[in-house]
Amino acid sequence: HLQLQESGPGLVKPSETLSLTCTVSRNSINNHNYYWGWIRQPPGKGLEWIGSIYYTGSTYYNPSLKSRVSISVDKSKNQFSLKLTSVTAADTAVYYCATNPGTVAGPVSHWGQGTLVSVSS
Amino acid sequence: DIQMTQSPSTLSASVGDRVTVTCRASQSISSSLAWYQQKPGQAPNLLIYKASNLENGVPSRFSGHGSGTEFTLTITSLQPDDFATYYCQQYDTSPYTFGQGTKLDIK
Q1: Most CB atoms closer than 10 Å: which of A10, B16, B69, B81?
Q2: Mean pLDDT of A48-67
Q3: In the structure, what pLDDT confidence band is assigned to residue A1 with cuts at 50, 70 and 90?
Q4: CA–CA distance from B72 to each of B19, B21, B51, B64 (Å)?
């Protein structure tokens, strides 16, 4: 059963870059059946899709964040990563790594437990 | 972006009740809709995909219906474990957007 685990700093300063990594367990990031992505949830609020990546390196981003977001894959470590530049307090959220089976345009079948990232000086 | 609007925002019910949550899309999304359950401090959990297909392991008291712009999630015979927040998500058109959530609490 596929498992996902987020890791990274829980506190980032305004204007700096948020960096998170998701480690995939019990499956391979090279599995062509999955797209790997990130979703976030500000405290007490709803969910926002950030973007996704396929093992080939093809990326898909939310246009509202596209200028600041980068998602990449590290096949040697079975991980994928998120970078969000020029963060502000509005980027404070629980960040989930997640996966869609079969297509980027699909339901999220597996979620990480989530990691809270606060943006504050 | 496609806007997803859920109603009601909060729903109070009792164990054994039947409840329905509605999700409306700002434009047609065919059947590209998923429902998730989220409990406090946990990640969402997929319940239904393609509007009406039950995810493996999800109890049959959950059901989904609809297509186009209007969708419903129905839970028959509420169990204590069902009190949570429910979200719909459209995956027809990027960006893939979620409803604002419906909190189901105990009356």
Answers
A1: B69
A2: 96
A3: confident
A4: 10, 6, 8, 6
Question: Measured on CA atoms in the order A27, B51, B89, A54, is the torsion positive or negative?
Answer: positive
User: Which sign, positive or negative, has the C-alpha torsion B3, B7, B9, B14?
Assistant: negative
Q: What are residue B6's DSSP bridge partners?
A: B23
Residue identified by tokens 């600041």 is: A68
Closest CA to B93 of A62, A105, A66: A105
Q: Which residues of B touch A64 (CB under 8 A)?
A: 1, 95
Q: Supply B32's token pair.
A: 């590209």
Query: Confidence class of residue A13 from pLDDT cuts 50, 70 and 90?
Result: very high
Question: Closest approach of chain A CAs to the CA of B3, in angstroms?
Answer: 12
**Structure-token match 């948020």, residue found:** A18
Token pair in block for residue A33 = 């059946």
Mean pLDDT of the B66-95 span: 97
- The reported pLDDT for the residue numbered A102 is 85
Taking the CA atoms of chain B, what radius of gyration do you get in angstroms?
A: 13
The CA distance from A38 to B2, in Å, is 19
Give the residue from A49, A95, A110 with the most B CB atoms within 10 Å of its CB, the best one to mutate: A49
Residue A102 in contact with residue A110, Cβ under 8 Å? no
Q: Of the candidates A83, A110, A68, A50, which has an alpha carbon nearest to the alpha carbon of residue B95?
A: A50
Instruction: Report the candidate in A45, A113, A53, A108 with the shortest Cα–Cα distance to residue B41.
Output: A113
Kindly list the residues from chain B whose CB atom is less than 8 angstroms away from the CB atom of residue A48.
98
